[in-house]
Known about the structure:
- Residues 1-131 form the DAGKc domain.
- The protein is built from nine helices and 16 strands.
- By secondary structure, the protein is of the alpha+beta class.
- It has two domains: 2-115, Probable inorganic polyphosphate/atp-NAD kinase, domain 1 (Rossmann fold), CATH 3.40.50; 132-285, Tumour Suppressor Smad4 (Sandwich), CATH 2.60.200.
- It binds adenosine-5'-triphosphate (ATP).
Amino acid sequence: MKQAMIIINPTSGKEDAPQHVRNVEEVLHDAGYNVTVKETAKEGDATHFCITACENGYDLVVSIGGDGTLNETINGLSDQDPRPKLGVVPLGTVNDFARALQIPLNPAEAIQTLTSTRVKNVDMGRLNGRVFANVVATGSLAETLSSVSSDDKSKFGALAYFKEGIKDLRNPAQPLVIHHDGETWEGHSPLFLAALTNSVGGFEKLAPDATVDDGLLHCFIIKDLTVLNTITIGISLLVGSLKDHKDVVYFTAKNLSVHSVESVRTNVDGEEGPPLPIELSIIPRHIQVIVPEED
Ligand SMILES: Nc1ncnc2c1ncn2[C@@H]1O[C@H](COP(=O)(O)OP(=O)(O)OP(=O)(O)O)[C@@H](O)[C@H]1O
């Protein structure tokens, strides 16, 4: 019999993960899986559960939670061989990974897609020793956006980031040095983003050219943030033209590093990451993710 592990974070999003578990168990059981359920109690649990699943030859791991739980799950999967397939039931407040893969944001619909026969080989990013699935952000605005509360994200969706971002106008941009593919960008920036997928912070058109298997980091440097350009940058973010904004530098890369003479923090897949310096690279088409059948 095939083996599946369900990894569930009971605190994700609206904290309604436990009520979906029975449904996931039933769907997977009907599809011929023997199912083990593991509930996380703290940071790092999802990674450890996932490593155990790999070591015991599981065929499928399902992450039920937000992008943070997903990040921990892929950190358990990434260095194992062989690796189970990954299923995702998005229950967080943002769910960028599910948005990028057209996995339904409605949990009941997402659960039905777990038996889909369609699988996509998805790029992962490496940041120093860890792996990420969606985005790395750094700079003062990234720090401010990290402090957006789950309550606000649930209430206002992606607009919660605008609400918090406006406050950042008071903070000075930080000095960053970014090396990529033999080039260097040096200057002050309130925000540097490296995205693997089109959806960042729930903004599905932030990086419209990014596909989950293109082998590229899509990078944006905001050069300046003023009252006036916050509005125009916000509009470009919504309509999918951020890379063309006059105060934005855009490039793609397979490897890059970011340094600063100041102490600067990062945000990785929506959770606090390590401080600078960071080295980023792509692991192309690394994880097999179950995605909905094509229409
Ligand atoms: N039982 C638990 N209690 C508290 N925190 C937990 C528990 N289990 C896991 N965590 C931590 O919660 C973090 C956030 O979880 P997750 O991303 O799934 O939810 P979210 O923050 O509501 O969603 P989103 O990232 O979409 O906003 C994870 O990175 C994990 O370390």
